[in-house]
Design goal:
The protein has 418 residues and is of the alpha/beta class. The chain has two domains: 4-258, 3-Layer(aba) Sandwich (Rossmann fold), CATH 3.40.50; 261-417, 3-Layer(aba) Sandwich (Aminopeptidase). Helices cover 32% and strands 30% of the residues. The chain has 14 helices and 19 strands. The strands form four sheets. It has an eight-stranded mixed sheet with strand order 1-2-4-3-5-6-11-12, sandwiched between helices. The protein has a seven-stranded mixed sheet with strand order 13-14-15-16-17-19-18. The protein has a two-stranded antiparallel sheet with strand order 7-8. Helix 2 (83-98) packs across helix 3. 40% of the residues are buried.
Length: 418
């Protein structure tokens, strides 16, 4: 028996049939992934990515856009398609996916390639907090500019006088004026930055269809909006990541979509944890401490090696996504949360909260000595400042805060159930 279930599904948007496939593990409470294909392609181009999601524990939904395929199984014709209709298609599939008995409707990841990336980004911006993660492979954020320039792929026209039907050298390919007109006046950057969650953008440096400047601008806009955005450039990769360029892209996808696991610390983790500690201090905490203070705090990547005994004597946890260590925490027998660090590339993904949830479980009261940087995080978790203090390391003074949390009765009751 296969460990996955593969099923076809059908849903409808404004009377148009949307046909797709879901691939999922044989269990329930699965996070949702909805994958969107590119211009004139179909869901088959997403099948390898659908498999990655299923192997990572998702119910992965792939579908053909209405009128968006040269060869597809959904209804509609090319002249029915626009960026707006595809956004509506995607929202329809998301709504359908959320009704399935085997999913967790509060955990949604969207992935799109090329035009499907634009559609996914717009949809995430509209749904906002409903979308947990957004993955964009070579997203075609050039589409509004192309429309304003009167050249969209093989279709050329006068943007000031768009004809009812757009034709090209391929006789059977025809688009209606709604395709360019839906984006002519669109400010794509102000639209997509309404999403402030977790974003992965993967783009090839040799993309001849969508210049990498669009991916770089998207990264800037997401960062400016407060999103947690990671941009990965595949050296030499073109549009659609042919052959060898798809492998690193898939590795990025696996890492990003893998589920967070909190496990107990093992002695073999020490070197990785020490390197993570150094990198995090010298990047995440750099906004609140001087270079000299950061150096005193974490001298080098082996700074924690000598603390092996502390990790073993305390209760220590590792946060892991796939094979990558993305955070760690340790708490002593008295309930003092000694260390809590999250990888610099995985900030604002609720990893620190997950580590704290695990570390705090056995204790009715928890104390910690927080950095300036971490103070707001602990305050949101119910910690209060006992006192501000300065500690000295290698002759350098660093400010921190002694903070304490007393659990509510309901939290203590919940703890006893574990």
């Amino acid at each position: 028996m296969s460990k996955f279930i593969k099923e076809k599904f059908i849903c409808y948007r404004d009377g148009f049939r949307i046909a797709g496939t879901v691939l999922r593990p044989r269990r329930n409470n699965l996070p949702i992934a909805v994958l969107s294909h590119g211009f004139l392609a179909n869901s088959k181009m997403m099948s390898k990515y659908m498999r990655v999601f299923a192997e990572s524990g998702y119910a992965a939904f792939c579908f053909d856009f209405v009128g968006g395929c040269i060869i597809g199984k959904s209804g509609g014709k090319l002249i029915d398609m626009s960026i707006q209709t595809e956004t509506d298609d995607l929202k329809t599939v998301i709504a359908f996916a959320k009704t399935q008995s085997y999913v967790d409707p509060e955990k949604i990841c969207l992935m799109g390639c090329s035009q499907g990336g634009v559609v996914s980004a717009l949809c995430a911006a509209q749904l906002k907090d409903e979308v947990e993660k957004l993955i964009l492979f070579y997203p075609a954020f050039c589409i509004p500019d192309d429309a304003r320039n009167g050249k969209m792929m093989m279709f050329e026209f006068d943007p000031s006088n768009v004809p009812d039907i757009l034709k090209c050298k391929i006789p059977f390919l025809k688009l209606s004026r709604i395709y360019p007109e839906s984006v002519l006046n669109m400010d794509i950057w102000s639209e997509i930055k309404k999403y402030t969650g977790n974003v992965l953008i993967v783009h090839g440096t040799n993309d001849k269809i969508v210049n990498t400047c669009y991916a770089k601008r998207a990264k800037e806009e997401y960062d400016d909006a407060g999103a947690n955005c990671r941009l990965v450039l595949i050296d030499g990769g073109g549009h659609m990541f042919a052959r060898k360029y798809d492998k690193p892209a898939i590795e990025q996808l696996k890492q990003f979509c893998s589920q967070l696991v909190i496990r107990k610390y093992e002695s073999a983790d020490l070197k990785t944890v020490s390197e993570l500690f150094y990198d995090t201090v010298h990047t995440v905490n750099a906004k609140d401490y001087s270079h000299a203070q950061l150096y005193a705090w974490a001298k080098d990547r082996d700074s924690l090696i000598k603390r092996q005994n502390d990790f073993q004597e305390q209760t220590s946890f590792i946060a892991q996504i796939g094979e990558k260590t993305v955070g760690f925490a340790s708490i002593d027998k008295s309930g003092c949360l000694d260390m809590l660090y999250v990888h610099k590339d995985f900030q604002r993904q609720k990893i620190a909260a997950a580590l704290c949830d695990e570390a705090e479980k056995p204790f009715a009261a928890i104390t910690t000595f927080s950095s300036i940087t971490a103070k707001p995080f602990f305050q949101k978790r119910g910690y209060t400042v006992i006192r501000e203090q300065e500690v000295e390391r290698f002759g350098i003074k660093l400010k921190n805060y002694e903070m304490r949390k007393i659990k509510k009765i309901s939290e203590n009751i919940q703890t006893e159930k574990y």
